[in-house]
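Pilot study result, target chain (348 residues):
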Amino acid sequence: MSSMGDVFHTSPALTDAQHAIPGLVVDWVVEEAFAEIPFWHPVVDRVLLINLRQWRKQPFAKQTRTQKNAFFNKVNEQRYDLVLDAQGLLKSAWVTRQINAPEKVLKAGLDWSSARERLASFFYDRKINVAKDQHAITRLRELFAKALDYPLPNTPIEYGLNHQAWLPLEQGPNPQSKSKSYVVCLHGTTWQTKYWPEDHWQALITQLNQQGLKVVLPWGNAEEKARSERLAQGLNEHQAWCPPASLKLNEVARLLKHAKAVVSVDTGLSHVAAALDVPLVVLYRVTDPKLVGAQGQMVTHLCSPLAPQYIKQFKPGQEHASLQGLGVDDVLDKINLLEFNEALPDQK
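Predicted structure:
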């Protein structure tokens, strides 16, 4: 229902299920912030938007009760064969339990030892064991296979999204602004310790410009906009573009899809690029991609020695150590390697 990474991690499992079960139809309950994403998968019929975050802030308000009743009445208009909680949290388990169409529809989810919040397992009729020491995508593929009773495929990750017809995003008034020769830099994230220093971004932009590549700097809030403007300062429209307004998720996705490459810190949009099979380099400064990092056919990770430590505030000496292996040349080497692999005939 929530977290951009969690939502994208579910798509490969849906693709497996679509291949295994002809005629499968899926409705997806998701938070309103991620309303656009489920529609990108062809097996999804209805996207049921829930405002659970707001309900939890005002649980006893009349408006909350009204919205909650309207939501579940809408959900229960459809008769389901199975309700599957793919998130394994108490909030998602609670929603799962409220769906009663038909009245005794089977509810499935992760068992006590598998769920992220163990108490969630009490809400399910069928409790499924999935080992925790796997990437989230692998866990979800296994969960879906067991819940829907088909063999777990031993195949590479396939997001299966409908993005082939997406057109390039215009980048300003210049008719030539749709050129594919650009790199998207995703610099915004949640923790200060996950940021890549601005002087590193500036050096990377200079190097990319020297290779004839334009840099695009999308943003989602005032702080990110200010950073994008600083990074684009002094550069012309052929060197860098900072959107004048915040882009919608569908617009960001179009921008990413047609990029030559994407460089990203650990942020939700890295999962969008991964799902679109764009050459992607993700910088993991203080977080570990092992279990929830961006995954895909064209994804590579750069990890510092401190990546597994999940540091939210640096101690003396850690700030410098957290940048080891994340230099500008390291990024450029990975971009060039990914672009080379993309051009190989057997990769197309």
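One observation from the pilot: The two ends are 33 Å apart (CA to CA). A full batch analysis is planned for the follow-on phase.
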